[in-house]
Amino acid sequence: MTLTVLDPRTALVVIDLQKGIVGFPTVHPVAGIVASAAALAAAFRRRGLPVVLVNVTGGAPGRTERSFSLDGMPPDWADLVPELDAQPGDLRVTKTTWGAFASTDLARQLRALGVTQVVLAGIATSLGVESTAREAHAMGLNVTLALDAMTDLSPEAHDNSVQRIFPRLGETGSTRQVIDLLERG
After folding, report:
1. pTM of the entire structure?
2. CA-CA to 146 of 20 to 30 Å: which in 59, 136, 157, 158?
3. Quick check: is 65 in a domain?
4. Which of 62, 74, 148 is nearest to 98 (CA)?
5. 82-93, pLDDT tens digit by residue?
6. What is d(CA 106, CA 52) in angstroms, rounded to the nearest whole number?
């Protein structure tokens, strides 16, 4: 569904734009993804709306064929990219699962702020962003996905999320469309 409206209490949730992950080869140039997410964060802050900056420091404990470990990663691997211009008022969430809700208190924090909608951005479209979108939708939050502020490691995975999954979870639009709605709000 094309982007139509933002609720008065909408939060931006930026997934895994951290030094270690932005170094992976992605489908879309990561500089553009980071710039779009940073523009969204600045626009949300100007409106006094919550900005949630999420990073990942590990993997879920369940058994999988592919395991992920931070062993041997540089010490700053989980640090958010400086372009996001993290502010003291931003919510910071560190997760150990794909989605930002399952292993954190993000749901409680957003409820306490009266948030009814989230705008999602980040890496990877089919992993952290999609998992967070699914969790938010299941919690009853309205979900908006800023498509030009996200990318993936796989073009097929990115396209599947954008074309098949996201339209079932919420509305999609561009960074510019989200910012325009914020400015009109």
Report:
1. 0.94
2. 59
3. no
4. 62
5. 999 999 999 999
6. 9
